[in-house]
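User: Structure tokens for this complex, please. No commentary.
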Amino acid sequence: MHRYKFVLTRPLQFLPVIFGISVITFILVRLIPGDPARVILGARATPTALANVRAQYGLDQPLWLQYFYFLKNLANGEMGRSILYKIDVLQLILTRIEPTTALVISSVILSVAIAIPVAAIASRNSGRAPDHAVRIISTFGIGFPPFWLGLMLIILFSVQLGVFPVSGYGSSIGDKLAHLVLPSLTIALSLSTVLTRSLRAAMVEALKSDVATAARARGMPESIVFWRHVVPNSLVPTINLLAVNVGWLIGGTVVLESIFALPGMGQLLVRAIFSRDYMVVQGVAMVFACATVLVNFIADIVTVAADPRVKL
Amino acid sequence: MSVQAIEPSPFSWRRFFGKRLALAIGGGILLFFLLLAIGAPLIAPYDPILQNADVRLQSPCLLHPFGTDNFGRDILSRVIWGTRIDLQIAVIGVLFPFLIGTAVGTIAGFFGGAVDALFMRLVDIILAFPFLVLMLSIIAILGPGLGSFYIAMALVGWVSYARLIRAQMLTLKNADYAIAAVSLGFSRFRIMFRHLLPNAVAGSIVFSMSDATLVLLSGAAVSYLGLGVQPPLAEWGVMVAEGQSFITTAWWITLFPGLSIVCLAFGFSMLGDGLAELLGVHE
Amino acid sequence: AGVLTIGRREDSTTFDPIKTAQNIDNWVFSNVYDVLIRVDKTGTKLEPGLAESWTVSDDGLTYTFKIRDAKFSDGSPLTAGDAAYSLLRIRDDETSLWSDSYKVVDTAVATDDRTLTVKLKNLSVPFLSTLALPNASVISKKGMEEIGSDAYGEKPIASGAFVVDEWRRGDRIILKKNPYFWQADRVKLDGVEWISVPDDNTRMLNVQAGQLDAAIFVPFSRVEELKKDPNLTVTIDASTREDHLLINHAHGALAKKEVRQALDMAIDKKAIVDAVTFGQGTLANSYVPKGALYYYADNMQRSYDPEKAKEMLAAAGASGLTLNYLIRAGDEVDEQTAVLVQQQLQKAGIIANLQKVDPSQEWDMTVAGDYDISVNYWTNDILDPDQKTTFVLGHDSNNNYLTNYKNEKVKELVAAARLEIDPKKREQMYVDLQKMAKDDVNWIDLYYSPYINVSRKHIENFYQNPLGRFFLEDTVKN
Amino acid sequence: MSAPVLSVRDLTIRGHLDTGTRTLIDAVSLDLGKDEILGLVGESGSGKSLFCRSLVRLLPSSLLRIEGGSVLLEGRDLTKVSDAEMLAVRGSEIGMIFQNPTSHLDPVMRIGDQIAEGIRYHHGLNARGARAAATEILSQVGFPDPARQYDSYPHEFSGGMRQRAMIGVALSCNPKILIADEPTTALDVTIQAQILKLLMEIRDKRGLSIILITHDLGIVAQTCDRIAVLRGGKLLEEGPKRAILSKPQHPYTTNLINSHPSMPDSAPVEVIKASGVTKPLLEVDDLNVCFKVGGSLFKGSGKSVSAVSGVSLRVMPGETVGIVGESGSGKSTLARAVLGLAPISSGHVTFDGIDIAQQKASGLAKLRHETAMVFQDPYNALNPRLTIGSMLGEVLKVHGKIAAADIPARIGELLDLVGLEREFANRKPRSMSGGQCQRAGIARALAVDPKLIIADECVVALDVTIQAQIIDLFRELKEKMKLTLIFIAHDLAIVRNLCERVVVMYQGEIVEEGSSEEVFARPKHAYTAALIAAIPDIDPDKPLLRAGMRHDEPQSTPLQPAKCMP
Ligand SMILES: Nc1ncnc2c1ncn2[C@@H]1O[C@H](COP(=O)(O)OP(=O)(O)OP(=O)(O)O)[C@@H](O)[C@H]1O
Ligand SMILES: Nc1ncnc2c1ncn2[C@@H]1O[C@H](COP(=O)(O)OP(=O)(O)OP(=O)(O)O)[C@@H](O)[C@H]1O
Ligand SMILES: [Mg+2]
Ligand SMILES: [Mg+2]
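Assistant:
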């Protein structure tokens, strides 16, 4: 399988990306005015207490030295210690990875599950009422602020109808899934519109394509033409779009995590930024970066699997 | 070549607009908002920041068609004045990324090689960089407000344009007319910007329309985190975010600015669709 | 019986009491740890905690505590040695954020298993109050030495009503009843879950939908609506929270007392109480919270008079005053106050430029004196007014709560009040301080606001004392 | 003619377009006999494809509708039967082969599965049975290792093999009628010959009736039994092949026949003997061009393709040299390397005495000033956003050979020269036909006022009649302006018509070189001989494919591991 050789070589290219991100995050968070020591000490801060905290976390060291320690830690698989939570950053992050990951994955699954049939209906009725309806709804759907939409869904499904939990994450698998429905639906309502538009366009194109004509010319009924030829050929461009969007999503779940009280990394990140918990910000940024890179990597693999012509 | 009779067909609106329908709707909506923005001082019935303790949380009525907020400010007037800021957000939030991305994409795509590799690594980094960290950091460094928001958008947003343009340039630079231009002894600058760029840019223009929606929504998300425009300015995202506390008691505070975002986004999307058809761009 | 679920904004950060100074942590500590001396439900009296009783030597320097027969949550006995260890730890440990407050302790010795003797370096009347601080909770010496402070901070060995069963970071803290608690028969709940639900709306909706038993931090704007819901009880408990407008005395015309007085008159606090707190707050007339120890109810309150303010400004040569008003981003109440105050000041001819920055930067700028006015609030940690008075008026290291307020007479009085043993005289000193502060306008007192919590109807006895302590040992879930 | 298997009566198709209603097929009546190959010829846009697609009711757009006439297949009128019935007709009664196999084969489905799909659906075979049947078909259409090639994807094959696969797909359900829509236009002559041969074999073996669409009369002459000529949606004439070719009724048909390039031209190319001039204008010496393929930043050595290897060539001033060879033989690369548009791996190019490799700056400047190129694809070679006038103006301005004030006049002259109306100065390429675009491209080359023009397959995309016009134009210009011309084509017939000297390339090397007459009369190299033999002659009595047929094609993309300099 020589086409999959990039699976072995590609990870090497990740290193400079991750390194670049570590440098930028490091500099960026330290450019932010504000002092973590003061944040955790609050109004009762006294100079000795401040100095103590700064010394404990090495914040009194010169910047380059701090970065050096950061890299050194990283090489040992450590990410330092949270100033706010007083524990190891990696340990802290590990407790928060699951909800975010679950949210992203469930949203993607839901979005795709919505987008494919909807795009199918629209493209197969291209230019007719269902198509126009889908296009208009999806064009409108893009504009809703997610935090507003999320709240509306809670009011409707949880408070009025009582079918899904209002917020939180739950402990058993079933419980977690129930908790994920509304937040993923909120994301899916906007993500699926983006996917639908792209898929619809690709499908309309593919339905008119020579491939479809050729299949019809050998007497294939429309359903086979569609599901065996049009769909596989329309997926490839959408995979890329999906990857880009998932990349955005990974770092952008914070608003929904907050609305739905999901104990994920987005919330952790925002609180860490607001309290200048440098190590946590760096750690989360690294995890997000790695996740994004991983998503793109997976997208590449899927693309290669879905389209035998692609070589990477 | 082929000689065929063309019979005139009866007039129909459908045919008149034809493919331009989306363009017309989108353009119409944007024009409407633009007029609102320009005419805000004339159209808005009240001062958007004037508080009136007597009419706090007034539901929509004749005097206040969109109701009032918890300070007794007129929502309609705030929505109308908000148009100015939100249009500006959409336009500036897209314009700078567009310009930067186009320049970078053109150069990277045209020259290829080391320049390209360098830029593309940068693109990789920015794509993998958590947007929120950047956005919040920039806002924290420069203070909340539109300036920081634009800078953050520009720092991140150019990547999409650069990628689009670069991909176009990579194919276009091998197009026969590009090679023809080289063989005619045209300068690189001329080839890049006069011959290739105009042909490469259509996709980006179409994308910029959906990008405008993304920018609006990013602005709203930033407002949700409390880092939107400085009060007491009226901006839709901030209005929706602030009105959240009243969502069960005074729905009108969030509904109208929320709908305005949706409508503006709809306008941009339609315009994007229209442009795509006009410029022959496939998503 | 049953497990009480409570929604709050943020998750805790640690269970190691000396490492935090945040309410979010302290409010959970108080039901996990126990302290030597407690503050009662009304927030006005000290009452025995792990210390059954205590005596103070005549010079006021030696305190002798009789430690109750109690056990830690791991079943090991709690001794005077543990109490001494805890006190020295908060004073000496380098990770302690509170060492300054306990520097007054000279020695703390367990004379025997049940007797703790504390010697102070110098007289300090508020000392007993500081022992009620949740951060001074008694920890197990043996436990701490065995498992280390990190593990302790995750799952402490404590002696309070509940023990930490599980901590799902970012999500919830699950507490279960502590069978070894010395008042175990008082505890009716099987357990408590503190659940973080950052969004105010979602938190309220959770209670409305019956998925949480209770939620704290009810936004002012929601009180009336929630009160109407027959399934809910809205609890409004007196607090020690006081919101005030900081004034940077070091900036230009603000150094003049008359200008500050004019500013005070230009602000319509009643309007703020109405519009921002939806009538839940009450006008503040002193830096000491209403109902707290030594609060002076008859303190002067300048009436709202923008015209007079304008005149005074003109007289002080400060017409057309332009002020930089710093706001903390993300705090809805702060922002709303700012919007109101801005318009009010305008009526008195003062231009306030709002500058919104992120919370920790706001703090930084305030500390750096990079502001003219800014809204802030304070909640008391301890019963005694000395702590706040020292911070606000006492000229200690923080420039009088960053206002750069200077008044030598006030400074001396603050120091003297700390040493006055006679409660009557002491009260008079604090009344004087409140009058002087008001006259000087060290800052502008805006309003006092209560703790507002909501619970389902079947929850009883869910309340806080003014220092914020929840009495979950009394709470009943039917 | 035996009883027709398919007969079309007064078929009329109209398009209801934005611009109005157009009649695209105008009352066409045709019969297709059993075992017969019917050739349908006509220029681009004449309605050939539309006609065929209408037979199976697969019109390209819902705006086009069959609005009259009938298509009778075994007594049923296909324009009337139900959609379900039509499904059974498509594939199992009428099979279709399309012009462009690359776009008609599903790129993400295995070749074999595409054949098996129809078999399973129409014959209800199970997966195993369909696979066996499909493998059998693959071997019938000439796949050397069908069992293995069943699992390959279309892009893994060359154009010729793809067309075979396409034929396999069309045959999968054993149809009685095969419609082949320009099945060889995208292919090289040699491969074209193989495909045509295959079609005829299949016809013989299976007793098929075939409608073969083409715009090349040569193909018709070689393969068909009857000919129908279509123009502007109307059937101009129809009849047995020989009758039509020898006695065309319609002037358009006559014109078509006369402009066929395989017609020996009346005026033989006169060879201008290099009288006095001894210095060649262009000298190519042992030129190598390699392309790196694959490889990336992190793995150093990818493979190298040697596109041009060891080519030496001299072109005298005023000479016209033709370069021929199949696709991928390195013709374009050579042209580009000569013009400094492709990097040279080794060797020398000397233009008018200046070695370009050595004096890069001045050499290139001189090249750009004195040479010009005309491209294959007339549309893609013109910037779609510039009008012809501004395009020409820009060239004139940049070259600065004439004063700015004279530019408009010069533009007019150039348009006159290539036979375009002056009003074309204000047109954009999109509003022009292929032939007009190609003229504009030539005008652009002339604007440089070059000594040397390299025309790279500049007539391939055009209709025969227009091809002939362009060739005439070149001939005229060459004489008028004393141009040196390098004319690249894979069509030998055109080169023979225009050039005095011809160079034959095969896999990056020159395999034969000499005067046109000489090479065509007595090809020395086997490859040249095969090329010549593969040209379909318009004379039906000069049969196609005298040379031996190979089933396997020459490997057209030589992937040689780093044979060239790094
Ligand atoms: N989808 C369509 N919509 C509108 N008009 C069309 C469409 N397809 C074809 N036509 C028109 O129908 C006419 C005949 O087209 P057709 O494709 O049959 O030509 P052709 O003879 O096959 O040409 P070529 O040799 O280029 O393949 C042309 O004038 C073309 O413009
Ligand atoms: N940029 C390139 N990178 C890699 N390989 C190339 C490149 N350009 C051409 N080649 C290869 O060089 C060989 C010669 O190509 P060239 O285009 O010169 O052939 P040609 O004779 O002009 O063919 P055609 O008749 O199809 O135009 C081919 O195998 C081609 O794949
Ligand atoms: Mg055709
Ligand atoms: Mg070529």
